[in-house]
């Protein structure tokens, strides 16, 4: 509680914003439950929210580990090693 961190929105083309906050919160909670620290959980949440807004649907049913890895790779979004491990992002 002694530091404030800001992560800007990720550079994706926005197709719809409905559900973006829910997606962010889901990513944050998944990260924390999976044992990621707060910083990396926030990083995961940003990635999940970016994937959510790239879809015109309120719930992007295509969101999974592979889709998040693909998004990071295609948009040249650097993810920390804990996130890459959690998402099981392999080479290529």
Protein topology:
Elements (H helix, E strand, L loop, with lengths): L19 H14 L4 H16 L11 H10 L6 H7 L5
Helix pairs in contact: 1-2
Structural summary, described in words:
With 92 residues, the protein is mainly α. It has helices spanning 20-33, 38-53, 65-74, 81-87. α1 runs antiparallel to α2 (38-53). The longest helix is centred in the middle third of the chain and has 16 residues, at 38-53. The N and C termini lie far apart (38 Å).
Briefly say what this structure is.
This protein has 92 residues and is mainly alpha-helical. The chain is 51% helix and 0% strand.
Envelope shape: globular
What is the number of beta strands? 0
Radius of gyration over C-alpha positions, nearest whole angstrom: 12 Å
Q: Counting H and I runs of at least 4 residues, what is the number of helices?
A: 4
| Spatial gap, N to C terminus | 38 Å
How large is the share of residues in beta strands? under 5%
Major beta-sheet overview: none
* Averaged pLDDT: 92
Structural class: mainly alpha
In N-to-C order, the SSE pattern is HHHH
Low-confidence stretches: none
Helix proportion range: 40-55%
Which features characterize this protein?
single chain, 92 residues, mainly alpha
């Amino acid at each position: 509680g002694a530091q404030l961190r800001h992560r800007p929105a990720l550079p994706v083309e926005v197709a719809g914003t409905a559900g973006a906050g829910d997606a962010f919160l889901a990513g944050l909670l998944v990260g924390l439950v999976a044992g990621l620290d707060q910083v990396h959980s926030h990083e995961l949440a940003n990635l999940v929210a970016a994937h959510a807004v790239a879809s015109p649907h309120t719930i992007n049913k295509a969101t999974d580990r592979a889709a998040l890895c693909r998004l990071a790779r295609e948009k040249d979004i650097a993810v920390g090693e804990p996130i890459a491990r959690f998402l099981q992002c392999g080479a290529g």
